């Protein structure tokens, strides 16, 4: 039940480039370049995201990418 409420809010925050935990802009986080098209972004709260420079979209990092 909670996932039905939280998932759309998290998707909306990621589409705006904000952290799903604290709401801070992900642009201000720590950037680490993984390859030519992806960057690893670490928010000030510690959550890790992957930024695709081609599509200009964020997503949560998988355990293998951490």
Indicate the topology.
Layout: H1 2-15, E1 30-33, E2 38-42, E3 48-52, E4 57-60
Antiparallel strand pairs: 1-2, 2-3, 3-4
Explain what this protein looks like in three dimensions.
The chain is an alpha+beta fold. It has one domain. The chain is built from one helix and four strands; from the N terminus they run H-E-E-E-E. Strands 1-2-3-4 form a four-stranded antiparallel β-sheet, with no helix packed on it. A hairpin with a 4-residue loop joins strand 3 and strand 4.
Sum up the structure in keywords:
globular, alpha+beta, four-stranded antiparallel β-sheet
Q: Supply the helix-strand structural class.
A: alpha+beta
Strand content: 25-35%
Total domains, how many?
Answer: 1
**Spatial strand arrangement across the major sheet:** 1-2-3-4
Instruction: Count all strands and give the number.
Output: 4
Shape: globular
> Between the first and last Cα atoms, what is the distance in angstroms?
28 Å
Number of helices: 1
């Amino acid at each position: 039940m909670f996932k039905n409420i939280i998932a759309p809010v998290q998707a909306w925050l990621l589409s705006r480039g904000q952290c799903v935990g604290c709401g801070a802009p992900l642009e201000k986080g720590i950037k680490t370049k993984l390859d030519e098209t992806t960057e690893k972004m670490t928010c000030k709260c510690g959550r890790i995201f992957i930024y695709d420079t081609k599509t200009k979209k964020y997503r949560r990092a998988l355990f293998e990418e951490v």
